[in-house]
Amino acid sequence: MEEVQKKDVRKLSLPELEEFFLAHGDKKFRAKQVYEWLWNKSLKNFDEMSNISLSTRELLKTHFVINHIQVDLMQHSTDGTIKNAVKLFDQKIVESVLIPTSKRITACVSSQVGCSLDCNFCATARLKRMRNLNPDEIYDQVVAIKEEAETYFQRPLTNIVFMGMGEPLLNYANVIEAIDKITSPEGLGMAARRITLSTVGITKMIRKMADDGVKFNLAVSLHSAINETRSRLMPINDTNPVEELGEALKYWYDKTKRQVTYEYVIWNGINDDERHARALAKFCKIIPSKVNIIQYNPIDEGEFRQAKPEAVEMYVRILENQGIVAKVRRSRGQDIDAACGQLANKNEVAQLTEL
Q1: For 193-211, what is each residue's pLDDT tens digit?
Q2: Residues 181-185: what's their mean pLDDT?
Q3: β-strands 93-100, 105-108: how paired?
Q4: Which of 95, 137, 148, 167 is catalytic?
Q5: Pairing status of strand 70-76 against strand 7-8
Q6: Catalytic residue flag (residue 284)
Q7: Residue 340 a catalytic site member
Q8: CA 213 distance to own-chain centroid
Q9: 7-65 domain in CATH 3.40.50.720?
């Protein structure tokens, strides 16, 4: 007789776990105990559920598995950044990053295996999108970095950014469920205001987030407020042009009253002139916002090269003269390909997935 495929226990809600135990002649409260082990204590093994009887643990093992991630390769940068090559239950690989500063420790997590958006400057965009990550796989990345923060820095994890591999809004339901687990008192109990979701600007999903009343922060990977340039950089702009993006962000602010952060890279000969800087300043006036000017991290010898310092200074001057907060962010983890736009599974363990 063919063995029945066991279900990942973390796919069950608390009410579903309660139904399972009642159906198997056990107590309803067992579900809450198991749920706490899975989500609050991030347990990876049924045998370690010490307040549950051996017979109940055997029952769980008969019906379920825990498809926990494995940190297959950990790389340490000279600046303290840690990059994880994360192996999933089906042997596919994603990457996540711990970014330490003097005031905070941030987890940069992935939401998809690969990406389908073809941003021309991004290494991840060259990967084939293979599948969405499950909520528990997103949650597990956070747990792994939380443990690394405590082990290597003796400090707690303070912030989470969805800026790793993939577009979070193309895996919306799973990302939202993962954030619910991360922020829930029954989960990790982190504050939603410490979480930032970064998107290329999928307008209908920005509106949906606003309608859903999400409590986390929004960042938009902008890079140009001129359609012609932005479409050259990011093909998604063809179907989500700057004007529609602006309207969606107005909707976001009207609903949430929270400012947005624009992530912006300046490239030599592409968007490094005053026309682009003034277009950005105008776009920033649509709703309260701030700008992070991000240092570019080359991924090859192609057309994209970091702008000269005077171009960055020009941008900052124009933005600040318009009363817009602009900060220049220096990249971390460049020596281990952990910086923005560099996540591409270059390590040997990832080659087997042919991402």
Answers
A1: 999 999 999 999 999 999 9
A2: 96
A3: antiparallel
A4: 95
A5: unpaired
A6: no
A7: yes
A8: 19
A9: no
